[in-house]
Amino acid sequence: MNELAGELLTLSIMAFALGMDAFSVGLGMGMIQLKFRQIIYIGLVIGIFHMFMPLFGMLTGQLLSGWLGLLASYIGGALLLVLGLQMIVASIRKEDKPFIAPVGGGLVLFATSVSLDSFSVGLSLGIYGSRVWMTILLFGFFSMILTWLGLLLGKQVRSWVGSYSGALGGTILLAFGIKLLFPL
């Protein structure tokens, strides 16, 4: 039971870290005029994408784990390090990207781009042997809630907050990458 609680806590923290990316983007998107119904829909779509991307990554990671053994854990840790560094660098640069409208194909493109990092983390978790259902449900839940929060707060706060939350998410992923590379 203690192992289950530890895994639940670890996966919740990781899901929160990945959801911070969606929160950051939601803050920026929340600056435009969106109806409440659109905000709900956007959060649901991003939550679903944050469930399927890590699932595909985990299945791939489980295959790699069987073939590569211990080396696979180091690959997963390295992926988390790279992903965390990418998130931190992106938050420091504060680049303004052209906005894609969050409807139809634009929403699918937006949800895909925000959830691609979940595939990489899912790959790492599949290598590590995490529980699939717990992982995808937590990732979907946290990303959906944080997207909603970002969209709603985006109407009231300035865009600089988004860069700090991206850096926080990147730092958390860095820490988990280090944990996989250097287990105690």
From TrEMBL:
<keyword id="KW-0406">Ion transport</keyword>
<feature type="transmembrane region" description="Helical">
    <location>
        <begin position="161"/>
        <end position="182"/>
    </location>
</feature>
<keyword id="KW-0472">Membrane</keyword>
<dbReference type="Pfam" id="PF02659">
    <property type="entry name" value="Mntp"/>
</dbReference>
<dbReference type="GO" id="GO:0005384">
    <property type="term" value="F:manganese ion transmembrane transporter activity"/>
</dbReference>
<comment type="similarity">
    <text>Belongs to the MntP (TC 9.B.29) family.</text>
</comment>
<feature type="transmembrane region" description="Helical">
    <location>
        <begin position="132"/>
        <end position="154"/>
    </location>
</feature>
<keyword id="KW-0813">Transport</keyword>
<keyword id="KW-1133">Transmembrane helix</keyword>
<feature type="transmembrane region" description="Helical">
    <location>
        <begin position="71"/>
        <end position="92"/>
    </location>
</feature>
<protein>
    <recommendedName>
        <fullName>Putative manganese efflux pump MntP</fullName>
    </recommendedName>
</protein>
<keyword id="KW-0812">Transmembrane</keyword>
<dbReference type="InterPro" id="IPR003810">
    <property type="entry name" value="Mntp/YtaF"/>
</dbReference>
<feature type="transmembrane region" description="Helical">
    <location>
        <begin position="99"/>
        <end position="120"/>
    </location>
</feature>
<dbReference type="GO" id="GO:0005886">
    <property type="term" value="C:plasma membrane"/>
</dbReference>
<comment type="function">
    <text>Probably functions as a manganese efflux pump.</text>
</comment>
<keyword id="KW-1003">Cell membrane</keyword>
<feature type="transmembrane region" description="Helical">
    <location>
        <begin position="39"/>
        <end position="59"/>
    </location>
</feature>
<dbReference type="InterPro" id="IPR022929">
    <property type="entry name" value="Put_MntP"/>
</dbReference>
<keyword id="KW-0464">Manganese</keyword>
<feature type="transmembrane region" description="Helical">
    <location>
        <begin position="12"/>
        <end position="32"/>
    </location>
</feature>
